[in-house]
């Protein structure tokens, strides 16, 4: 008896990554390993590099969830994407701040982004390139896309760093630590201690278990400083951060493609958020198939709210320096 071909019922999904450098190629790898998308497309102006990355990734598909990997220097490779991760930009050098990167990166966004929007107008766009908050704000102005459809990776990675350090100190699994970094993805970011918890215990009430001490103000300050400084240390040691940011990006990708409505501290345009307007900043937000669905009014202490407003002012000042 002849077998009749059955229609392929699995939902198609396409991820496009602009930039095949350390972050972009590692993000493609992370997304493939997690089975996030059926098609992963890499775009880069360096033809040999992008084709080699796609070929290398494709050779490992046997050991991952089934997917197609393509790489090209033709922007058409991004056509029809459901999610576009924009990772292209100037490389951050040791000792260089994210703000130092702004001018060159915004120029690149101005040159490349409109073409990507043209071939993938319905995609959710996630800006990853630093300084991500300023770049996201500029990208919104350049693209004309609504702020739900285009946002930045924000402090998803920073929050992961925070939870990792808290887990190390308390001896609790990182998955049971719930805490967010808000504000700028950079030096003015701040941890939201007053809404953080370990299991069901408010973090500020944590007294220590199994030989670990309480999370005193001094300990919390040290952890917050380590979150900010860790990226600089990694860049000084190996030239780039790529593994953790790629994993953080893959979680954003899954939240969109699977319409998870997951709470993630992404950077989006704020409008009346605790009186903060006209700036892209990270706050806990609901992320799904349409992008940023809502920004959550997380309870904050007076100091946290003051810190968030100061962070907004710092990011806004930099954006104004570049005419945005």
CATH superfamily of the largest domain: Lactate dehydrogenase/glycoside hydrolase, family 4, C-terminal
**What's the CATH class of the largest domain, please?**
Alpha Beta
Give the biggest sheet. 6 strands, parallel
Helix content: 25-40%
- Count the DSSP helices: 8
Whole-Å distance between the termini?
Answer: 67 Å
Class inferred from helices and paired strands: alpha/beta
Low-confidence stretches: 1-10
The radius of gyration is 20 Å
Q: What's the structural domain tally?
A: 2
Q: If strands are numbered along the chain, what order do they take across the biggest sheet?
A: 3-2-1-4-5-6
The averaged pLDDT comes out at 92
CATH topology of the largest domain: L-2-Hydroxyisocaproate Dehydrogenase, Chain A, domain 2
Name given to the CATH architecture of the largest domain = Alpha-Beta Complex
Q: What is the total tally of β strands?
A: 16
Q: How much strand content do the residues show?
A: 15-25%
Q: Outline of this structure?
A:
Its EC number is 1.1.1.27. It contains 8 helices and 16 strands. The protein is α/β, with parallel strands linked by helices.
Question: What are the salient characteristics of this protein?
Answer:
Rossmann fold; L-2-Hydroxyisocaproate Dehydrogenase, Chain A, domain 2; six-stranded parallel β-sheet; three-stranded antiparallel β-sheet; 39% helix
